[in-house]
Amino acid sequence: MADGTMMHLAADLSFAHANGSWRGKGSWTGYPYYGRAEMYEDIARIVERGCFDMVFFGDAAETPHDSDGDFSEAVRYGVNWPKLDMMPTVVAMSRVTRHLGFGITMSTTYHHPFHVARLFASLDHITEGRIAWNAVTSAYRNEARCWGHDDIMAHEARYARAHEHIRATKALWDSVDPDAVVMDPRTGVFADPTKVRHVDFSGEHFRIQGPLPVLPGPQHSPPIIQAGQSPAGLALGAEFADYQFAANGTLATMREHRAAMDEALVAAGRKDRDVGMLWSIRVEVLDSPDDLARRDREYLDMQPPGAPIKNMSALFGVDLSRYPPDTLLGEIVEDVRSAHTHWGYLADAVRSAGADTPLLEYAEQRLLRGAAEAVGTPEQIADRMEELHEATGRNGGFILSRLTQVPGTLRRFVDEVVPVLQRRGLLRTEYSGATLRDHLLT
Ligand SMILES: Cc1cc2nc3c(=O)[nH]c(=O)nc-3n(C[C@H](O)[C@H](O)[C@H](O)COP(=O)(O)O)c2cc1C
User: What is the CATH architecture of 8-176+203-285+371-441?
Assistant: First the structure.
């Protein structure tokens, strides 16, 4: 629970190098090849200076294909591609910071709980208690094929497996007591075997004897973050999450989502407000009022031909370029629902933008502002963030969305907006706890 007046902040670095951002003003241009650590280390230093809770890396381990099975456009223009495994980068970032946390993604659909439990317990040690797991069920069709499946697993089946996965992972984290280590040089005893147990987990998807061959790290169970818009997604978060990410386009749908989460929490036997929300938000410090339109145009111009529709097609696993140009959102609902992908996003879009919104108009807007928005002077940005924070019950904070060109826009946010938030008592001025869990929950 993040129940307080303070705002929590994360920075979404999932696509820092992709989708045209690599050539945008203030982007990673000028740093060595993106697979190296220098830029990410600088970002870590910048956001720690801004007292952020964490940086975040989403993941879908795939090369986007179009409906004919061709990936050349995605590769040519760097559309959601390339995608490194960011675990090693997180370790590098943790070595140049002391307090900043790291949210990193592993799929409950494609990875085994034993692997996830062992990796996150190990990361908890090496980052000194600053790792969180973004537990996702993965809704990209080609990702399924990369992990050896013919097609994407149905939405409900993915979520059923996720429940079992997280239960098994948590059981593994609990299979070794924190005080198991003895390390007595006199007797030669390293650890007390009575403090280590089998888990003997037996479910529909996983059978695991255990125990985990890793001692608990400083957080014991790394915080679990999750994003789910659908009833099944909300139910998973209500059962296991410490925090949720949510990308809602309007204050009305943000409030609806908060209320739905609270209802799901009570249904799961927890207290309402028990899960803090990090709302995805696009933040832009503008030099003049007409700067936003210019930046929108610049960003759209950086995109490959047809990018808005392609991006949406990839998100929904439906080839939307085959629809006539004047198609309305309401007309794609059934096809998207039956594709078992990110149905929750479309449901939110239909509620916030309306079923009669033209598809292309929505696709462009989604690329630019798939989430909430705070733009203008630093004071105006702080006003909007404060308003949204207040109106959604001051329970969590924001994740600066992936449109953020880094490190440029992050540096501006930290230098110009953070001091305003701090002056208003909305953001910590220094870190107080020892671990990411401490920071997220206070
Ligand atoms: C900030 C944010 C980050 C996300 N990161 C990932 C990710 O890394 N990988 C992924 O497959 N899905 C990711 N998602 C999608 C969610 O896991 C989820 O599928 C989506 O919110 C739709 O909800 P539903 O699955 O309940 O339909 C993310 C969503 C948000 C809002």
Answer: Alpha-Beta Barrel (3.20)
**Cα 418 to middle of ligand 1, angstroms:** 27
DSSP class per residue in 50-76: TT-SEEEE----S----TTS--HHHHH
Q: Is the peptide bond before 378 cis (omega within 30 degrees of 0)?
A: no
How many whole angstroms separate alpha carbon 218 and alpha carbon 242?
17
The ligand 1 atom nearest the CA atom of 140: 11
Q: Is the CB of 121 under 6 A from ligand 1?
A: no
Q: Which atom of ligand 1 is nearest to the CA of 341?
A: 27
User: Ligand 1: does its nearest atom lie under 6 Å from the Cβ of 9?
Assistant: no
* Element containing residue 384 per DSSP (H, E): helix 378-391
- Give the residue extent of every domain in the chain: 8-176+203-285+371-441
pLDDT one-digit tens code per residue, 364-416: 888 887 789 999 999 999 999 999 999 999 999 999 986 667 888 899 999 99
- pTM greater than 0.85: yes
| Residue 173 Cβ < 6 Å to ligand 1 | no
- Atom 16 in ligand 1: residue holding the nearest Cα: 227
